[in-house]
Design goal:
single chain; alpha+beta; 7-stranded antiparallel sheet; 7 strands; elongated
């Protein structure tokens, strides 16, 4: 949100056509609102081995996921999709056992079930 605020302040004080600056500010505010809404939205995650389902969309976990005690980043590709997606999972988003299970499955590829 700070980056969007700084960008809007720059657009307000930079010289240029008012219409272009206004449309740019509107676009910036829209992108910031979308980013804020997608971060705040609750997600449903189900992981079984290398198969994943996020908000009911099935897919596969792909290489590049990051696992640490304080942060887990899941890179996954929905079935039939071209691009991968990223899901950030912080320790307070799940109970301790589910978060540990998620980290174990992603790090070691062990079969198991995580629901959160």
């Amino acid at each position: 949100m700070a980056a969007a605020g700084v960008t809007l302040a720059l657009l307000a004080f930079l010289p240029g056509p008012v219409l272009v600056r206004g449309l740019s500010a509107l676009w910036c505010a829209g992108v910031a609102a979308h980013a804020f809404a997608s971060v705040r939205r609750a997600r449903a995650l189900r992981l079984e081995g290398r198969r994943i389902s996020v908000d009911g969309v099935p897919g596969d976990v792909v290489d590049g996921s990051f696992v640490a005690p304080w942060l887990t980043i899941v890179h996954w590709r929905p079935l039939g999709a071209r691009f991968t997606r990223t899901l950030l999972v912080l320790p307070d988003m799940l109970d301790a056992d589910s978060f540990r299970g998620l980290r174990v499955i992603l790090r070691w590829g062990r079969p198991g079930r995580i629901r959160g």
